[in-house]
Amino acid sequence: MPKSGDDAAPPAGGQPEDKVACAAPEWRRRKLHLVSCEIFFREMCLALSRTPNQVDAAFLPKGLHDIAPEKMLEHVQAAVDAIKFENYEAVIIGYALCNNGLAGLTAREIPLVMPRAHDCITLFLGSRERYQDYFFKNPGVYFKTTGWIERNRVDDGELQQLSIPNQQGMNQTYEEMVEKYGADNAEFLYTQLYDHTRNYSKYTYIEMGLEQDANYKAQTHDEAKERGWEFENVEGDISMIQRLVDGQWASDEFLVVPPGHRLTPTGDETIVRTEKAP
Questions:
Q1: β-strands 141-144, 202-207: how paired?
Q2: pTM of the entire structure?
């Protein structure tokens, strides 16, 4: 829900108040630069179309999640450092902590604004509290959204070479493993090394209201049926993403990293904090 108070304004785009964060007042319009994971592409574009702020954007490939955290940090930091800081008030980050892949991200000459979130599902569900409540009530859940389905591709090139499976030699096909280890051993090894969903028992599709049709939801339902998993469709909430681009950075939802500082994990419910950069 939008925050109340002096900064509140009518919701943009004629949408219901419980689905859209309040826009910042005109006198607080800001020029911002967004650096975001591409899995948020649809949601971020909608939020950017509604915000009164002027926001330029750069989207980075989902494949960064498949490489070592320190390599992911290098790519995100490079995208931040490529921004002409004199043109903007702040850099807003369309990422969560992402398995510590953003630990150490440093603000140079202007602040960084980072959601307090362990992973992207917090932003798709609209709050950390809603995500935690759902996660603990549904152990073994595997989430899907349009972004995770559309962007779940393996590209040739640098990111594939840097991917953890490739670095550890875990990029063989099942047929190659059969030839090398025999059918029985190959089946066991393939299951242990490649089936990253073996500890899950449920697909939850988060419907953000941006889908052109029901194909992705139906696809997720069919995959759940094939695996013998449960399936649930839940309604997403774009409000936290909207607050990020609107500049409504309440301290319990977002961390503002001042210039010369970097973000670091806390290990508690606040998720991230700032520290002086070396």
A1: parallel
A2: 0.77
HSE value, Cβ hemisphere, 13 Å, CA-based, for 241 = 29
Domain boundaries, the chain: 12-125+238-276
The candidate with the shortest Cα–Cα distance to 24, out of 242, 182, 215, is 242
Q: Using only C-alpha atoms, what is the Rg of the chain?
A: 20
Residue-by-residue pLDDT tens, the chain, 278 positions: 333 334 434 344 434 434 444 444 445 789 999 999 999 999 999 999 999 999 999 999 988 877 788 999 999 999 999 999 999 999 999 999 998 999 999 999 999 999 999 999 999 999 999 999 999 999 899 999 999 899 876 554 443 443 334 444 445 555 665 666 676 665 555 555 555 566 789 999 999 999 888 999 999 999 999 989 999 999 999 999 999 999 999 999 999 999 999 999 999 999 999 999 99
> Among residues 255, 243, 256, which one has the least CA distance to residue 111?
256
Nearest to 235 by CA among 104, 92, 124, 112: 124
Write down the number of H helices and E strands in the chain: 11, 10
Cα 167 from chain centroid?
Answer: 24
